[in-house]
Amino acid sequence: MYVPQLRKSLIKTVRTFVNLLPIIIGMLLLSSLVVKLLPGQVTADWFAGNAVLDAVMGAFVGGVAAGHPLASYLLAGELLKGGVSLIAVTAFLVSWVTVGVVQLPAEALLLGTRFAIYRNTICFFSAIAIAFLTEYTLRVIS
Amino acid sequence: MANEHTKSGRGGWLFLLLVVAVYGVIAISNVELIGQALNFFVKAMRSVWPVLIIVFLLLLAADMLLKPAWIKRHLGGKGGIKGWLIVAMAGVLASGPIYAWYALLKDLREKGMRASLAAVFLYSRAIKLPLLPLMVHYFGGAYTVVFCLYLFAFSIVSGLLMIRIKERETT
């Protein structure tokens, strides 16, 4: 009874995976290109010193950038040392792991275009909200 | 949104072709950059394949064990707070790149999972448990705790906003 079920499920899963493979390879190729292009260019000069504008810039750069979250910690640490505000750095960190401009085509292909656009838009604005909330919460705590 | 048509067969290959074309165009003016990107791609591929195996096994297990009726009951329209918490926690525990999980979410959605819960899962993935010590090292303990609590809370908020958008679309 279980063998035909396993066989059926295996065939279905392999088929799903074959369809997923070009998306994953495409995504990795695209991410690799962005990783080599963007992070080296991001400097403290990109941030003007205005809390709102910096938060928007942080969320934007984090959303466009791609790569391991560890890279975002290193970059965020450097930005903080360079005098960029905690609000901008937090928006950047949240956006890096929640917004995916590079991943958008893959997300749209697999989960639907509207879903991908709505979700990424919500994540972009929530990155800005979390940035301000984190800053003010830390102020209250301290 | 729930009935939104998704396609990954031919669309995936077209996407890959487009990316290869972008590489080709850039290679004309900057071969060195393409070489560096390809090196990075090979390294990234090596680190991604274990996650892909996990996703493959989860897809297989989901197909064999999770019946549409169960998914609809717990992760569907009538699923309660338990379903939201299950999905949020699963997102926190899920590792690897985000796109590796799209296939599993697509499969679950086809079986009746709400779009809002897929959004919750993708959001709560932002909490990276294995990287928390590093985050504490870079930004401090208080910052890490506050940051993660807000991420978890906003994963639920993102799901609620997706419901609200869907309701607006249908009215």
Characterization of the model:
- The complex is a heterodimer of chains A (142) and B (171).
- The relative contact order of chain A is 0.13.
- Chain A has 6 helices and no strands.
- Chain A has 142 residues and is mainly alpha-helical.
- Chain B has 171 residues and is mostly helical.
- Chain B contains 8 helices and no strands.
- Chain B is globular, with a radius of gyration of 19 Å.
- Chain B starts with 8 loop residues before the first helix and ends with a helix.
Task: List the defining traits of the structure above.
heterodimer; A: 142 residues; mainly alpha; 6 helices; B: 171 residues; globular
Count of runs of 4 or more consecutive helical residues of chain B: 8
Quick one: overall form of chain B? globular
Q: In sequence order, what are the helices and strands of chain A, one letter per element?
A: HHHHHH
Low-confidence runs of chain A (pLDDT<50, min 5 residues)? Answer: none
Number of strands of chain B: 0
- Average pLDDT of chain A: 86
Helix content of chain B: over 70%
Q: How far apart are the termini of chain B?
A: 13 Å
